[in-house]
C-alpha cells in the first residue's frame, strides 16, 4: 500500500511536544554571547554620532557594533542586508547598531543606552492613490509583467449592460511567525556556522558567502526546526547577517534573537494596497470587460512590487482585459512576501467585486463564477494542466447547503444576531523549482534520504519521507529523512507553495536511481559503506511543457453580526480545494485551515496602523496587532477533490501552503455584506465600520 | 513563610533555589532575569519558547506551583523556593503524557513553536476546570464546568498559534480530558 495519501503524524511530533526540538537559538554553544539590536529613531537621514560609552559601561557588555566599526560586507549583494555599513537611515526602526554582551540582560540594557544623533531629512511615509511619486515598476514579484492588456477595456466597459467600479483597500499586514527571527552564529577557522530561523538555508548560505566574501562551502546554515515564517523568512534576513558580524567582531559565538516589536517592518510585511476593480458584464453576469489597477508601496532601500493584480489575469472570463501595478517609493521598510503575496490581497478585491456584480445582476454568486469560468488561460492563451474551479464551487456549495440561500442582504435574524453567508473563488500557481537530493542504501536494509528542504511547520519532513517510501518501494520505517542543513544536497526555499512539489521531485528521482542501481548490484549486496545516488531535477524542471498550472479552491463562510454592537463572529468556514495529489491528509488539512484562518484574521482583525509622523507602526506587538485566537475559530473545514494532473511533477502535487488564504477574506467580507447589507471595502471590517449602518431591528 | 532571595555583593544578582521538573537548582541570577530566560539560558531548558517576551502570546507558559503562568513576565529571583514544571517535565515516566500524545495524534501544531506553551496552558486549564473555575463563556456559575468546545476555546485564547492549529488543539485537549 502506498505511503502517499495516508495520514501520518509528523515525524518530529514527539520532539515538538516534549520541548526536545531545537530552534535557532537553542543549541548548546560554549562561550556564547548575546546580541541585541538597536533600531533607528529617525525616519530618514544620517547618523552623525554614535556614543557607545554608556553602553560599554554596563557590566557584561563586550562591544557595540555600528557603521563606524562593524566588519565590512560586500556591497551590491542585497541592499536590505548591507547592514551597519553606512550612516544612512532609510526608515524608522532600521537596525543601526548591535550590542553584544555576556548576558541577555546586559545586552538589552546596553542597547537602551546607545546614544545616536541624526541629521534628519523630510520624509514621505503614507501610501495614497494621489502620491506624486507613483511610478510603474519594470516587473512585479517574482518577475511578472507590470501591466497587461488584451482587447479594448475602455470600450468594452463602456458598452457593458452592468458596470461595477469599486476601490478596495487593505492595510499593512505583518507576518508574525510565532518564533521571532533568530540566529546563532559562530566562526571557526574562517568558516561560518549559523543556526538560522529561515525558510531555506541554501539561499541563506549563498547570500552569506557573498556578503562575507567566502566560498559557499565555507558557510554552513542549519535550520532543523523553524517556528513559522509565512514568507518573512523566505530569504536571508537581517538577524543572520548581524549575528555573523557580531560573532566576528567579538570573536565568540553569538545568539541574536529579535524582539516581537522589532519584527514589525524591517523584516518585511505585506504592503498596504489600493485596488480599483472594474467589471463590465451583460445582464446575466457574463463578464465582457475586466480591469484591476493596483497601487502598493516600496522603500528607498530596495524595490519590492507586490503582484496584486496578477490574480485577475487568469481567474475569470472577459474579452477585454487590463491589469496595472503602480508603486510609491516611501521612507518605510521594504515590503516582502507574506503568505500568497499578490494573490491574497488581489483575490480579496476581485472576489469582493464579483460578489457585488452578482448582486447587481441578481445572479447567485456561485453561479456567476461558474458562468465566468474559462477553458484556456486568458492571460497566456495556454491550456490549463487542470482546472477544477467549477468543481470546487459545486462541491463546496453542496457541502455547505448553499442551494437554499436567500440572496437578500440584511434580513436573517437569530435573536440579536444577523446571519449571512458568502462565497469566494481561490487560485494559486502550481510551480516547481529545481532541487537536488541524495538517497543512500545501507547494508542493513535501511535507507537515508537527504535534501536541504526546510520544514517550517508545513509537514514537509513527513511528506518527503512518505514520498521516498513509495519511490524506494520499501516500508517507510526503514527510511530516515534528513533536511534543514546546507551541507545536504541544495534545494530552494519553503515558499511559493512549491516546496513539496520541487523537493519531492528530486527525492523521487534520487530514490528511483538508487532502486535501479540496487537492481544491478550482484546479489543485491550493498557495500559496507553504502550505496548512494544523487539526482538533480534542473533539466526536467526546465523542460516542462508551457501550460497554465494552478491549484483552485472555493471558500464558503457563514457569519453572525450583533445587530446592536456590530460584533462579527464567524460561525463556519468551509474550503473546497483542487490541489493535485495530497501526500499527507492530516498535515495538508492543517495547512489549508491555517491559511483560511489567516484570511479570517486579515478580514476582521489584522491592521498595521501607521504613525504618519514617523512612518512606523504604532501597534507593533501582539496585544495591539490582533491575530486570530482560539476563540475566533468555531467551525472550520477543508476538503479536496481527487485530482490527478500528470503535467505537474512526479508526485502530482500542486502545493497547499498559500491557497487557503487566497479568497478567504473576500468570503468573510461577502458574508458580512449578506448578513448586514453593509459593504465594507477597506479591511479589516471592524465593528465601528458597521455600527451606524446596520439594519434597524 | 518562604525564604527570600539573597542579594549578592555586586548588587546585580541574587541567589535563589528553584525546583524545576522535580530537580532542585541553587542559582545565582541577574536580578533582571525572567523565569523564561533562567530556564532557557541558565538551565538549558529551551522547551519554553520566547514568542513575544511581553506576556502577549503564551509561548512561554509554564506551571508555577501547579498554576499556568507566563514565564516571561516573572523575575526569577522572586521565585525562591517555588516549583516550576515546563514542557520538558510533562511527559509520563513511560513516555508521552495523554495530552502530548493527543497533540501529536490530532496534528495540534505545525511549526511547534507555540506548542510547549499550549501544552502547559492546557494542563493548567484542565485543573482550573476540575476546580470549577468559571470562564467568560460559562453559563451557570454555580454548576460544575462542562468542558465544551467553547469553554476550551475561551480558556486557551491566551495562547496564540499563527499556524492556526486551533481546532486541532481543541480536539486534542478534549480527547485528553476525556481520558483523564
What does this structure look like?
- The complex is a heterodimer of chains A (697) and B (180).
- Chain A is an alpha+beta fold and 697 residues long.
- Chain A folds into three domains: 173 residues, 2-Layer Sandwich (Aldehyde Oxidoreductase, domain 4), CATH 3.30.365.10; 343 residues, 2-Layer Sandwich (Aldehyde Oxidoreductase, domain 4); 110 residues, Aldehyde oxidase/xanthine dehydrogenase, molybdopterin binding domain (Aldehyde Oxidoreductase, domain 4, 2-Layer Sandwich), CATH 3.30.365.
- In chain A, 25% of the residues lie in helices and 26% in strands.
- Chain A contains 16 helices and 29 strands.
- In chain A, the strands form seven sheets. Chain A has a seven-stranded mixed beta sheet with strand order 3-5-1-14-11-12-13, sandwiched between helices.
- In chain A, helix 5 links the parallel strand 12 and strand 13.
- In chain A, helix 11 runs parallel beside helix 12 and helix 14 packs across helix 15.
- The longest helix of chain A has 21 residues.
- Chain B has five helices and six strands.
- Chain B starts with 5 loop residues before the first strand and ends with a helix.
- In chain B, strands 1, 2, 3, 4, 5 and 6 form a six-stranded mixed beta sheet that branches.
- In chain B, strand 4 and strand 5 form a beta hairpin.
- Chain B folds into two domains: 81 residues, Beta-grasp domain (Ubiquitin-like (UB roll), Roll), CATH 3.10.20.30; 82 residues, Orthogonal Bundle (DNA polymerase, domain 1).
- Chain B is globular and about 55 Å long.
- The relative contact order of chain B is 0.15.
- With 180 residues, chain B is an alpha+beta fold.
- At the A-B interface, helix 1, helix 3 and helix 14 of A face helix 1, helix 2, helix 3, helix 4 and helix 5 of B.
